[in-house]
Prior knowledge:
This protein is mainly alpha-helical. The protein has 7 helices and 4 strands; from the N terminus they run ααββααβαβαα. The protein has helices at 2-22, 24-37, 85-92, 100-106, 122-131, 154-167, 170-186; strands at residues 43-49, 55-61, 110-112, 139-141.
Amino acid sequence: MFYRHILKRVFDFLLAVGLLIILFIPMCIVGIIIKLTSKGPVLFIQERYGRYSQPFELYKFRSMVYNAPQRANAEFNNITNYITPFGMFIRKTSLDELPQLWNIIRGDMSFIGPRPLAVTDIRVIELRKLNGADQVLPGISGLAQASGRNNISDEDKAMYDAMYANNLSLRLDMLLIWKTVITVIRHDGVFKDSDPD
């Protein structure tokens, strides 16, 4: 309980501040490349649903073309048609997630937790309300992310998120951080299996 309610937040805040300082220049470089290679803003800002299903503004580096349709990844016939060349790189390497360090500092998110979802994923949001998965802060990565990312069903996402919320611990977070690193290195589940890399 001490880890869940106090220590996890302290770790999140200190690590996010440290990483933001270390990665500030690389993040500026990513932002400059986005600005030089495609039309539109550097950041993608979208309302997402977090703890207790409350909305907040999530920050990511923009990886899609300007004015791409706002819909869930699963609703695209071929999402890669809307992703810029550099956007493809930052998605595969998960560099597009780096601005969420600011979300963690603000207290909107954690490093590990259920992925914060947009209203386009309302089914999973509603399932989380029912199974209690929305009782913890959302994360940059989590059990569902490490278990298939975009290749699992809505029901399975909600199930994994509930499992995490019910079993949250330092040991589980360390395990998921390690699994996330492996997933990012292998580019697993960036797109649905039906979508080309």
